[in-house]
Amino acid sequence: MLFGAFVLGLGLSITLSETALALLTLRWLWRLRDAEVRAAARWRLWQPVLAFSAVSLMSALAGEGPIGPALAACKGLLLVAALYVTADALAGPEDARRFLSALLIVVAVAAVVGVLQTVACPGPAADYGAPGWLYHRCYRARGFFSIYMTLAGVLSLVMLANLPRLLPGGPRARWLIPPWLASLAGLLATYTRGAWMGFAAGVLTLLPATRKGRWVLVGGLVLIGLVALTGPQHLRQRFRSMGDADDPTVRERIYMWRSGLAMWRQYPLLGAGPGGVKRQYIRYALPEAVKKRTGHVHNTPLQILVERGLLGLAAWLWLWVAFYAHAIARLRRLPAEAVQERALVIGALSAITGFLVGGLSEYNFGDSEVVMVAWAIMALPWAIPATRTAERTSTRRTARSTSGPSRSTA
User: Fold this and answer.
1) Cβ atoms within 10 A of the Cβ of 219, count?
2) Under DSSP, is residue 147 helix (H, G, I), strand (E, B) or coil?
């Protein structure tokens, strides 16, 4: 019940998801009193997680300004619990498939609400009265979240994680196609270019992993591009401006990146401390920049570098390298006939790729709703039993032992 509430909250309410996550974490820690539970616990990625957490705390203690706000800005580290409670809750591939299906349905509801918001919105103003869920910040789809970028990040992650299950040659869960398409409409209605690019990158990572579905993936991306180019005016404008360096929002991001690099040069090893951009950006804002204050520099690796320095960036990169290494190794050990299991691992790789690429133009690692979904999806490769991944290795050994004597006898 707690995990179901957590999944529901991931798409509809951050209060519900964080409350359920806290209770799930307490339950998990309580169960660790048992020696057998501790022995069976899956402490995946604990080394880079511990390293990044340690560097974050060191940076908070060593940075300029009050220590209290810097330590408070580290609270996002607690969300890594989503990785461990999800891995603990998913006892096998069937649980993982149910988790992904439920998550897709939940975010599809948010996507439909987001589309309704943009369709009913009278204009670009911030508020048009009651009901607030429909008319507050309705110009770009936000669903039940406070801002459109959050909805876009969540939709991209969940859609990419489920996509391998819809392709030819895969499990073909056709009943998931309607909520997936509804989520796609919601993603387009957010007008969030960074999430669009991340989604496209995640789709492209699926090409080497599927033969029958390649034309579907490429054709689908082309079709989405055509829809964007022939759709409503604001959608066309946002799509065409993605590579335009003269676009005001693109230019403003470039100013932020330059200011961020200037900040990092002052604190190269441990950075300015968590929350440092919000506290100090005004001192480094360029004269030509419109925004003189901001909480982040619209680029996740640069934000990590500025606030946690080279040590923090190294630990952060280690986390993703470790995840990819483990997931790819697990994928290679799966036999070809393990279609369901392979789809889970490939979906996780695709989703995290989209998340990281999307983070090149926004600070999605600092968005609690988005990063909770990312942590949860990262648990999918560990939902596959080790005995299943060992089948291919066992088959290879049997084949070598069988072929060896036959050659010597010949």
Assistant:
1) 10
2) coil
* Total-model pTM: 0.91
Matching residue, tokens 């309704």? 116
Rounded CA-CA distance 106/110 in Å is 7
Question: Is the CB of residue 410 less than 8 Å from the CB of residue 377?
Answer: no
| pLDDT tens-digit series, residues 104-138 | 999 999 999 999 999 888 777 777 777 877 878 88
Closest CA relative to residue 102, chosen from 165, 179, 28, 164: 179
Strand, coil or helix: 298: coil
Dist. CA 396–CA 393, nearest whole Å: 5
Q: What angle do CA 104, 110, 115 make, to 5 degrees?
A: 120
**Alpha carbon distance 203, 159 (integer Å):** 10
Identity of residue 364 = N
- Give CA separation, 259 vs 59, 296, 316, 360, 367, in Å: 20, 11, 21, 16, 21
What is the DSSP secondary-structure string of 81-134?
A: HHHHHHHHH--SHHHHHHHHHHHHHHHHHHHHHHHHHHHH--SSSSB--SSHHH
Alpha carbon distance 375, 112 (integer Å): 24
